[in-house]
Amino acid sequence: MTTLLDVDNLWVRFPNRSGVFDAVRGVSFSLGRERLGIVGESGSGKSLTGRAILRLIRSPGIVEAGHINLHGDNLLNKSEAEMRKVRGEKISMVMQDPKFSLNPVMTVGDQIIEAYRLHAKASKAEAYKKSVEMLEAVSIRDAERVMKAYPHEMSGGMGQRIMIAMMLIPNPEILIADEPTSALDVSVQGQVLSIMDKLVKERGMGLIFISHDLNLVSQFCDRVLIMYAGRIVEVCKADKLHEAKHPYTQGLLGSLPRFDAPRDRLQVLTRDPAWREAPSVEARL
Amino acid sequence: MTTETQTLREWLLSETPTSRRHARMAALYKGWLTLRANHMAMIGLGIIALLIGTAMFAPLLAQHDPFVQDLAFRLQPLGTEGHILGTDSLGRDILSRMIYGSRITLYIVALVVMIAPVAGLLVGTIAGYAGGWTDIILMRITDIFLAFPRLILALAFVAALGAGIENAVLAIALTAWPPYARMARAETLTIRSSDYISAIRLQGAGPMRIITKHIWPLCISSLIVRVTLDMAGIILAAAGLGFLGLGAQPPSPEWGAMISEGRRFILDYWWIATMPGLAIFTVSLAFNLLGDGLRDVLDPKDSTS
Amino acid sequence: MSDAISIENLNVWFGEHHDLFQAVKHASLTVASGASFGLVGESGSGKSTILRALTGLAPQWEGQMSINGTDLTHKRDKQFYKTVQMVFQDPYASLHPRHSVDQVLSETLQLHGFKDIDNRVNKLLLDVGLGPAFRFRYPHQLSGGQRQRIAIARALAAEPKILLLDEPTSALDVSVQAEILNLLCDLRAEHGLTYLMVSHDLAVVAHMCERAAVMRNGEIVEIIEVADMRAGKTTHDYTAQLLHASANRVA
After folding, report:
1. What is the ipTM of this complex?
2. Cross-chain residue pair B33–A18, CB shorter than 8 Å
């Protein structure tokens, strides 16, 4: 598999009153045309990893890495203007809650058209046509009506599909999805995920799926990285997740209440300080 | 448990306070550290400390009596021997008058701060929490006071009660409280629907307890910030009233009144009006800088996550 | 022995005139004393609203609600608050940002008329698995799981018999959720509490409860024994749909 993205020794640090806090500590992995899941609890550094790739972390946060190579081209060496070309065109990001990531005072149509015209020189009419096409590609039936509507008039699932449409319209190669279904109802999650899956497969994109939901990631992704305290503690194939070796992963799996296996008490994760100290596992292809 | 004793700083920065007093001191210390990091705010604080010091030690600092006239030495320029900032039209030392005037400035500031924000907080939080007719009536009263032009009200007081600094302060306070009421009400409306308020209601707490112990602590931060930022306006308003002769009466060395007296001489003896003007400018700026710094420390945004 | 909670034909609505929205329609359920009952549904199904109506936080309702055989009116009294307490969903919003843990618990104990506050605060902290080290911390110095434990301690301070739990673990990490759910089970066994628990997560409800009501659009579509739910013996289509969606998240 060709490598689309290669991250080497990524560190993200935040200076604070008592020193420097390292949120991501030496993470290395590569991404091909696959669905890569990054799983972790809050504070594990998974969201920051995604944001660091897109260079969305502002000072006082410090991002350091050996390299973040997109097709061999180091993103860390790019200027802000060059990064603006990368964002959207090469790498896009879908975030958790469409209520907060869609502009509430612009119509859906205006936002998608804007997203399109930022990266392609097109007339308004062309952009409009493309936007409608994109909305239909995410299974929104009444696309013309939705173009004229405002985000708050949409349900969560619809909003997230609009977000996906907006992020995929410039035809990026990589999509980073940061908890894209956490704010959605269970019955809608499936729909949104299958749309995302279909588009990623059709376009031969790479997908980084960041989530706290181990089960979800194991069903949806090809390969899974498990992060703890800023480091990768384990890498495995998604369908082999239940054979995970690292005690943290096993602990996470064991602490979930299960329908088919009722228990009196849920397994409680005892955190071993050694996990924090062990070096990050490399997750190259 | 280590056997070495903690330094005071470590004790204050501790994440596990051991008593109520410890927790409170720790919170104050952290706030202080945030403020101290803001250099502009520290400059503001320094100037205000200087103001307070000047007011307290006025008799020691002033070289001359602010009321003694010396007609032989009137209208002396800056740098005159014995009168660094010159003398005014009646031969009184400007620097000494400014030093004593700082007391009056502080007096005005203190009186307005005791009346306006407190009244605003009361009216706003009660209106916001009670809702219904109480809210409507209180807010219409607020609107009425908000509509009063400050100077006209001051004129009315002077006409009715006679000129004087207390009446000027009353006029300023009566027109300054409505914005605080509006702000307090807006905050109360937001806070009212929070889970922690629902939780305390479920313990059987009555409205008085909720307003005083739960809502006020959250409103007070923005109120403090707003007051420091308004301070400049209050000082200027008092100076303006003094300038018009509606506030401090001669021979009181209130800064606004000093500017008024110096107005006649502004072309040839500019320092008489300019020096007190610079003092007003400096103190107003200091309060602005401090207010900005306090906003960073007390910003409720910090405390919700 | 009367039921701990009995709700019959409950209608709850918000707003008025053209803003009128009916959140709960003709809901009926009973929870026996000492039982654990779940309310499941998606967002907007009205499940949290039923809890709010019970506690008096949702004033516009009609129907019948009773606690331990006593009918509820539109006012709630001290006796009610000593019997029924609630744990809220968002641990980041259910504690007053300027009050330390000590203040929160002491005030609650004071309001309920207890005298030996110091001892009780310490005991409550131990009961929820935290120690005296947490007593003087402020909420921003606590993690989500710790805050939720404090919220549970606050609810227990009154020595209630019935706990209403509004999605108590949905804002928490999976490992923390396990701890809190274990804590809730232990407390229930220790104090003989009755639980009415709201959740959108069927697995959590199946773990914690014996029976559950499935809600959609304000209506209870089915009341089902958890054992039946695990076996897939549902009577309503919607319940089957929910079960299916929970098990296989990706279509």
Report:
1. 0.89
2. no
